[in-house]
Specification:
Distance between the termini: 64 Å
Radius of gyration: 30 Å
Helix content: 25-40%
Order of helices and strands: HEHEEHEEHHEEEEEHEHEHEHHEHEHH
Number of strands: 15
Oligomer: single chain
CATH class of the largest domain: Alpha Beta
Shape: globular
Strand content: 15-25%
CATH topology of the largest domain: Rossmann fold
CATH superfamily of the largest domain: Alpha/Beta hydrolase fold, catalytic domain
């Protein structure tokens, strides 16, 4: 009984206190005016910030370290505070990072055709430095130490890549319309232009290179995405390598990236948007669907090769599509650069699996044969030291070290020039037992003199006799957005 009374009294006191707390408080003290705080002086005009134009500071840095710096991308009026205090006289890289990163800029080393320089540009999320690239690969390597753990990681990456690119939003298969030109005979091979509908009203444009003589089920298939070029699949480099592949007995298929090439569906400017990457990968997937129906194709020998942006597409498609049995990515596999164009890094693909890197994506080819091609004039310069050993380790999980090859051109530049094409031809011939009779010169190198470079006008499918542009082709970019179910900043 006593406890009950105490509890009731405590409750009454609590509620009384709460009610009192809610009542306005009136006291003589609270009604008195508060004293005015003295105005704070403006010290900004007397505080040293040692601010200087960034361009001016970079000129001093270039002189101090004896290097060339191209700061043309930096606005003339962009100022940097405590400028001279950011200079690390013992280390150029640290100096550039201290000056540039807080302002949203980055320094990129360029070979400059033998006259190297640092180019200043806006920071891109796709770029790191070699030390960071090495650290990333060390981190990724810690996630797997045998075939089983790697296969588990690869399964996660494959699903995440498809999702990040948006391929899970569109039909897995689509039987679209196909428009074909007549075949043009160039001796050892024939060329045929095509427009393949990959989604309703949205097309992939390219060319098929046929061997002069074909047999059922006898010919490897090679998909050829191109590097950055307004000419698209009509560029000389793509035409020559496809012609050589066909001359060796392959059926070679080239296709243009989004808004590039002889038959662009939309203005070229739209290539630098988030639509490019999903479109390009979808094109390769649909072309595999289409070309693997050819009675002449041997489905056990399906390759893909491309340079630069085409090298990126090469790695991405190989990673997610097991129908690819051989891959040759050229001058693009780097641990510290994922491609600066939207067609390579315009989605969340680099964040797949909690964060990935092009070497890890390339390694998803294992244990299928792969040739890695690099040079000293771009971001693949460190391949022999950093990236190739990483990929070789993963091939070792399968006991397939003999299926991974690499070739490095220390003096080479960022391209798919003849030296690199020559290496690719040799790899294809060795892996698939191709007939190179009459294609190799006395010096042991392949001879491209029998290839023909056609004009872009001749490769425009809508210029072909008997081919009429369909009435339902999409003509506005919003239509492409709709059929691709693309969403800006999709996560």
């Amino acid at each position: 009984m006593r406890k009950t009374l105490l509890a009731a009294l405590s409750a009454a006191l609590f509620f009384a206190g709460s009610a009192a707390a809610q009542q306005p408080q009136h006291s003589q003290h609270s009604q008195q005016p508060q004293p005015q705080q003295p105005a704070q002086p403006d010290l900004s005009k007397y505080v040293n910030t040692f601010s200087r134009p960034l361009r001016e500071v970079l000129a001093d840095v270039a002189e101090q370290f004896g290097v060339r710096i191209n700061a043309g991308a930096v606005p003339e009026d962009l100022m940097v505070d405590f400028a001279d205090f950011r200079i690390r006289p013992w280390d150029l890289e640290q100096t550039l990072e201290a000056l540039l990163w807080p302002l949203g800029y980055n320094a990129e080393w360029n070979n400059g055709n033998g006259n190297p320089y640092y180019g200043i540009s806006r920071i891109r999320h796709s770029r790191r430095n070699p030390d960071e690239g090495r650290a990333l690969l060390d981190y990724l390597s810690s996630k797997y130490d045998d075939q089983a753990s790697w296969e588990a990681r690869k399964a996660v990456l494959k699903a995440d890549i498809r999702h990040s690119v948006g391929l899970d939003k569109v039909p897995a298969h689509f039987d679209g319309k196909v428009f074909l030109s007549r075949k043009r005979n160039h001796g050892k091979y024939l060329v045929q232009d095509f427009a393949l509908e990959i989604l309703p009203g949205l097309y992939s444009f390219g060319a098929i290179y046929w061997p002069a003589k074909t047999s059922r089920g006898a010919h490897p298939l090679v998909i050829n995405p191109h590097g950055h070029s307004d000419a698209g699949h009509g560029s000389e480099v793509v035409q020559r390598r496809c012609a050589m592949q066909a001359s060796m007995g392959c059926i070679a298929v080239s296709f243009s990236m989004f808004c590039n090439g002889p038959s662009p569906q939309f203005a070229p400017a739209y290539h630098k948007t988030g639509l490019a990457q999903p479109y390009n990968i979808l094109c390769a997937e649909r072309l595999l669907d289409y070309a693997l129906q050819f009675k002449e194709v041997d489905p056990s020998r399906v390759g893909i090769t491309g340079c630069s942006g085409g090298g990126s597409q090469c790695m991405f498609v190989t990673a997610i599509d097991d129908r690819i049995t051989l891959s040759i990515p050229v001058v693009m596999m780097s641990s510290y650069f994922a491609g600066g164009c939207e067609c390579e890094s315009g989605t969340l693909l680099p964040l797949s699996g909690g964060g990935t890197s092009n070497p890890e994506i390339a390694a998803m080819c294992a244990p299928r044969p792969m040739l890695l091609v690099s040079d000293g004039g771009d971001w693949t310069a460190m391949n022999p030291e950093i990236e190739v050993p990483y990929v070789q380790r993963i091939y070792g999980f399968y006991g397939a070290g003999d299926r991974i090859e690499s070739v490095h051109f220390p003096l080479g530049q960022h391209n798919y020039d003849f030296d690199k094409r020559n290496a690719a031809y040799g790899f294809l011939a060795r892996q698939w037992g191709l007939d190179t009779t009459g294609l190799v010169g006395p010096d042991g190198r392949f001879d491209e003199s029998g290839t023909v470079v056609e004009s872009l006008a001749d490769m425009n499918i809508w210029n072909a006799k008997g081919v009429t542009k369909p009435a339902d082709i999409i003509t506005d970019i919003d239509g492409a957005v709709a059929v691709m179910q693309w969403t800006k900043d999709a996560r």
